[in-house]
From TrEMBL:
Keyword Acetylation: no
Entry protein name: Gas vesicle synthesis protein GvpL/GvpF
GO biological process entries: gas vesicle organization
InterPro entries: GvpL/GvpF
Record's GO cellular component terms: gas vesicle
Keywords: Gas vesicle
Endoplasmic reticulum listed as a keyword: no
Length: 262
C-alpha cells in the first residue's frame, strides 16, 4: 500500500477516454475517482485512507449499518455512472488493493475473464424479480384447482372441496416453490442470463413478506419492454404469488470476476 492510502476498485471497462465523467460522483471516501489502464482494460478506482478502509477498520465499520449503507450507496453511484457511459464489470463492495500496480496485475491476470464478462453485459442491464407468497390466497387457489366436484351431489362436492383445501394447506410450501420455479424458468426465456439468489432474511430486509423467489436477470436493452410485460403477465397468471420488479441495475450478479483484496 502506498503510504497511508490504498486503492478501492469500483469497476472495469474496456479502455476508453470517457470511462469516467469529469463531473461524476465522488467515491466512498469523497475522493476523486480516476482510472488505472492496462492494455485494453481500464479500472475505475479511488485512493482511500487506510485508517478507514484498511482490513481491520473495514471489519469494524461493516458492523455499523449506517456507515455500510452510506458506503454502499457511494460505491454504487460510481459504478452506475460508469455503466451509463458504456459496458462495465462492477466489482463487489470493498475490493481494495495495495497500489495501482496490484490493480494492473489483476487486469493482466484476469484479462480473459474481464473480456468475457464485458462481452456478456454489453447492451444488457440487470433486473431483479422477487416473488412473494400469500399463504391464504395460494392455498385457496391450489384447493380450487384440485377440487373437481363435477356432477357430484352437493354433499360430496363439499367434501371434495374440503379435502382439497386441507391438502393445499399441507403442500403450500411445495406449491409456492413450484410456482417460483415456473416463474424463473419463464423469465429465463426472456433474458440473456438469470440467477436465483438466496432468499432475503426478513430480519435483514425489515419486511415480513414470505419471499419465494429472489431472481436476477440480464436483459437485452432492446427487450426490456418484453421482459417487463412478461413479469406483469406472470403476476396475473399465478394467484397467491405477487411479483415485484426492481431495476435497472448495474450487472453486479453477472460480473463473474472477483479476487480477494491484497
Amino acid at each position: 500500500m502506498t503510504g497511508d492510502r490504498a486503492v478501492w476498485l469500483y469497476a472495469v471497462a474496456a479502455s476508453r477516454d470517457d470511462a469516467i465523467a469529469p463531473d461524476g460522483p465522488a467515491g466512498v471516501a469523497g475522493e476523486l475517482v480516476r482510472t488505472v489502464v492496462s492494455g485494453d482494460l481500464t479500472a475505475v478506482v479511488g485512493s482511500v485512507p487506510l485508517d478507514v478502509f484498511g482490513e481491520e477498520p473495514l471489519r469494524r465499520n461493516f458492523e455499523d449499518l449506517d456507515w455500510l449503507e452510506a458506503t454502499a450507496r457511494a460505491h454504487d453511484a460510481v459504478v452506475s455512472a460508469v455503466v451509463r457511459r458504456g459496458p462495465a464489470v462492477p466489482l463487489r463492495l470493498a475490493t481494495v488493493f495495495r497500489d495501482d500496480d496490484r490493480v494492473r496485475e489483476l487486469l493482466d491476470e484476469r484479462r480473459a475473464d474481464f473480456v468475457a464478462a464485458l462481452e456478456l453485459v454489453s447492451g444488457r442491464t440487470e433486473w431483479g424479480v422477487r416473488a412473494y407468497g400469500d399463504r391464504a390466497a395460494l392455498t385457496a387457489a391450489v384447493a380450487e384447482a384440485k377440487a373437481d366436484a363435477g356432477t357430484m351431489t352437493p354433499g360430496a362436492a363439499y367434501l371434495a372441496r374440503r379435502r382439497a383445501q386441507l391438502s393445499a394447506q399441507e403442500t403450500v410450501e411445495r406449491d409456492a416453490a413450484e410456482r417460483a420455479a415456473q416463474v424463473h424458468a419463464r423469465l429465463l426465456r426472456r433474458a440473456a442470463a438469470g440467477r436465483c439468489q438466496p432468499l432475503t432474511d426478513p430480519a435483514v430486509s425489515g419486511r415480513r413478506d414470505w419471499m419465494v423467489l429472489n431472481g436476477t436477470y440480464l436483459v437485452d436493452d432492446d427487450r426490456t419492454e418484453d421482459f417487463t410485460a412478461t413479469v406483469t403477465a406472470l403476476g396475473a397468471e399465478f394467484p397467491g404469488i405477487r411479483l415485484e420488479l426492481t431495476g435497472p441495475w448495474p450487472p453486479y450478479s453477472f460480473a463473474g470476476v472477483q479476487r480477494e483484496q491484497t
